What we know:
The protein is of the alpha+beta class. It has 2 domains: 1-59; 60-106, no CATH class. It has 2 helices and 6 strands. The protein has helices at residues 3-26, 31-57, and strands at 62-63, 71-72, 74-77, 80-82, 89-91, 96-97. It has a 4-stranded antiparallel beta sheet with strand order 3-4-5-6, with no helix packed on it. A two-stranded antiparallel sheet has the order 1-2. It starts with a helix and ends in a 9-residue tail after the last strand.
Amino acid sequence: MDIKALGETIVLVGSAISTLKQVMDLLPDGSKKAEAQSDLEQAERQLSIAEAQTAEALGYQLCRKHGFPPVIMDSKGNGIWVCPECGDEVDEFEGGFVGSNPMHRS
C-alpha cells in the first residue's frame, strides 16, 4: 500500500470511529457498553499513532513538547515548522528549536 492510500485509510477509519462514538451514546449503560467504550478508546489511540507515523513518513515534523497524541506541526517554508498548539518552531535542517515559546519548555 502506498503512503497516500494509507493516509486515506486513516481518514476513513477516523470517520468510522467518530460514527461509532455517536452510536455508542445511544446504547444503554452496562458492562457491554463500558467494554465497547474501552475498545473504542484503544482504537482511537492506535489511530493517533498511525496518523503520527504517516505524517512522519510524509516528511512532516511532530512537536515533541506534547504527550499523547502527538501534534503534527505546520510548515512555514524553508524547513521551519511551527506547532499549532504551543507555537514552538523547529528548523528541520538544524534539528533544533527556533524562536521557541519559553513558556512551553520542559
